[in-house]
Model the fold of this input.
Amino acid sequence: MEMSKNIHIYNGDNNKSKKAPEEWKKYNSTSRNLLRMMWFFSFLRSTFEQLRDKPVKTKLGDILDEAYDVAFGDKHSWLVRKAAKIAIATGSDRKRLVECVLGSYDEERLKV
Done:
C-alpha cells in the first residue's frame, strides 16, 4: 500500500527534505515499524538463546550486551549505543530476569 500510494518517502523523521501532503503529515510507516520490531525480536532471541546456552555464572549484563550488538549495534548511532550499554550495565541480575519470565528460578530446570 505504501509503495502504490507513493507515501513510503514520507516515512518519518529521516526524510525531512520531502514535504508530505497534509493527509500524510503524521504518517508512520508500517514497513519501518515492522523492521524495528524484527530487530527487537532478534534481540530477544539472542538474549534467550544465551540464557539457555551460556554458563549460569555468566552475567546478565554480558548477555544483554552481546544481544544488543547482534540486534541493534550497527543500526544505532554512537551516542545511542553508549547510552544503551550504560543502561545494560546498570540492569538487574540473571536470576531476577529468569524469575520474571518463568515465575521461579531453578538451576536444575534450566539445564537442558
Summary: Residues 74 and 81 are 9 Å apart (CA to CA). Residues 8-110 form a domain with the Glycolipid transfer protein, GLTP fold (CATH 1.10.3520.10). DSSP finds five helices and no strands in the chain. The mean pLDDT is 81.
